[in-house]
Every structure is written in structure tokens, then in C-alpha cells.
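Hi, here's the filled form for the chain we discussed.

Project: internal
Contact: R.S.
Residues: 251
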Amino acid sequence: MKKTIFVIAEKENHQLYASLPIKGEGIETDQFSEGLDKIKSSEADVIILDCGNAAQKGLKLLSSLRAIRQDIPIIFITNENSSNVVIQAFRSGARQYFQKPINILELEQTIEELIKIKRTAQERRTPLFQRKYEQEEESRKAATTDKPVNLLMVIQHIEDHVCAKITLDELAQKAGMSKYHFSRVFKLYIGMTPIKFVTLRKIEKAKELLKRHDFNVSAVAYQLGFNDASTFIKQFKKFTGLTPAKVNNKC
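And the returned structure, exactly as it came back:
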């Protein structure tokens, strides 16, 4: 059976991916130290890159993979929930992003969809124009599917206006989509809802502000556009497991 799914992950995760119930598809697993060399000659249709807690190591490998195999879509998986990691992953060429714990059903559906897209593109090629088509396809992917420009614009908008009140209507308009379609696409690519992403980014910004002794908890809540301090404290504890006051006192 042809190995159509190439997984790069720590050894303890190999069994999980090797047992994915994707009918008719072979799965090959390798560790970080070997994955880059083997992928050069691989006939895989999809690459899964699970970097666990080592997000920066994973992002570096992601860039290297894209440099040598622009023809294979890459699914980037990590334990980290930082918005910066999400942005870097897409800018480095990830087609999809998942944060652990993974919804296995969503992962399977994503893999099947990417395989279908890749094979459909291959079937449309003719031998005479194959090289030209491949070059055009790679350029098109680099500009669109590998890096969803409208979503990157939305993420950048969030980064630029993290201290303001950001609404779903505002983000959907920025992406040029209806609210329903935008929410669906955003979650598909980013792994969480737009509002959860906004809140997460605000909490990360709050951590930075709390390090400054001229900002108390109420001031940080106001600075980041929360309606009141109690809402901010509730959201901060939900995402970090700590109260803002404890973080502030540690700084």
C-alpha cells in the first residue's frame, strides 16, 4: 500500500497516528530527526507535523519542509495555544492548524479533503504541460490556499486592535464573508472560534501589561476593552488557571 500520509512526531505519538481509520490510505511515521531527509523522496499526499510543546522547533521544521516539498500540504499540530504560533504556522506554509487535544474526526475529515484536492489537481494535468502546470499550481497555492490571505488579514487586524472592542461582525466584514461562513472557515483553519481567538490574544496582551507596575487589574481590563473587571478576571482565569492579581504580584 502506498504511504499517502507522512507523520512527523515524537515516538510516543506514532501509534495514535498509525491507527487513524482512513480507508485505503497508508501511513508512515517518523521522528523529527529523520523526517526531513525521508520526505525528500516521499510520494505522500499529506504531511502531519506534530511538534507537541516544541512549537518553535516545529515551526523551523515546517519552513524546511515547505522549502523542499511545496507540492505536499502540511497539517501543523501543537500543544501551544498562542496566537503568535498560529500566525507563524500559516506564514510558514501550513495548510491547516490543530491545537491539542485533537478532535480525531475533524483531523480525519481534513486529511481526506486535502488528499482529494491534491489528487484532483494531479488528474487534471497532461504530460505535455505538466511542469508548467506544477509551477503555476505552486504559485497559486503560495498565494491562496497555503496562506489564507483573508484570514491572515483578520489575524493581523486583531493584533493591531487587540486593545479595542472587536466584534464578530467587524471580523467577518474584514474577511469579506458572512458571519456564519467566516466563523466556520476561521475555526477550520485556526482551530478555534474567532471570538475565542480574540479573547486569547487579549489575555496574552494582559500578561504583558500586568508586568508593568503602573497597571493594576482594573486598568488592564479597561485597556483591553473588557466591559468590567469581573468579566476580565473570569476570562483570564479560564485561559490561564490563575487570577490576574496573582500574575501581577509575581511580576
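Let me know if anything looks off before we file it.
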